[in-house]
Amino acid sequence: MTIIKVPEKHFPKAEIGRRAMGLGIDFLVTWLISSVFGSGEYGVQFLQIFVFILVWLILRVILPYNNKGQSLGRWAVDLKVLDLPELEFGRGRIPSLLSLAKREAIIGLCLLLVSIAIANIMRNPTAILLVIPLVIDCGAAFSDTQARLALHDRFAGTMIVSSRRGYSLDLKIKRLVETMRQNMRR
Predict the structure, then answer these.
(1) How far apart are the C-alpha atoms of 186 and 142, rounded to whole Å?
(2) Which range of residues forms the domain containing residue 140?
(3) DSSP characters for 77-129?
(4) Secondary structure (3-state) at 162
(5) I need a labelling partner for 163 at 20 to 30 A (CA). Which of 15, 47, 55, 92 fits?
């Protein structure tokens, strides 16, 4: 009997910039939808917060669970979320619904505070302090040079990796910028 070594699959880690673009797209879509339900007054709008949470859970938990780990923003920049313990065994599995919910509850709360800060920054400049939880959460990915895991990734046991399936928005923007630079040099 011979032992055959099975090669492990390699899942390339996602760059911080692409992760930020994917998160930004999802936040922008969620924020725009929830802002329709605001009354236009300063302060906390409970209906707007409820709609933000609902859209965030649909966009970042239900959609990735049913779409191979990709939300709208992750699909746009060719990323997907995978289960970290499964990656250690060379298998790329989508996290469970509970893991996705834990992960997105943390980052969703941070972004909800950012949306409240955006809505109230003109009347109360100290609202900018509501951005601090997001900086702390995502700042952990900058300090972790090896795995690039943010705090919400560590808590839920997930990891963002590059994918071959998507729209490649980041690459299309890079090509457009490069074309514009070349045209301006002429």
Answers:
(1) 38
(2) 16-178
(3) TTEEEEEHHHHHTT---PPPHHHHHHHHHHHHHHHHHHHHHHHHTTT-GGGGG
(4) strand
(5) 55
| Neighbouring-strand partners of residue 161 | 13, 80
Q: Are 10 and 159 in contact (CB under 8 A)?
A: no
> Of 154, 103, 153, 109, nearest to 131 (Cα)?
109
Residue 138: how many other CB atoms lie within 10 Å = 19
Q: Look at residue 184 and tell me if it is in a domain.
A: no
Q: How many CB atoms lie within 10 A of CB 49?
A: 16
Tens place of pLDDT per residue across the chain (186 aa): 555 544 456 678 899 999 999 999 999 999 999 989 887 777 678 999 999 999 999 999 999 999 999 999 999 999 999 998 877 666 778 999 999 999 999 999 999 999 999 888 888 899 999 999 999 999 999 888 888 899 999 999 999 999 988 888 888 888 999 999 999 987
Residue that the structure tokens 């299309």 belong to: 172
Task: Judge whether 7 lies within some domain.
Answer: no
Classify residue 186: in a domain, yes or no.
no
Q: Is residue 5 part of a domain?
A: no
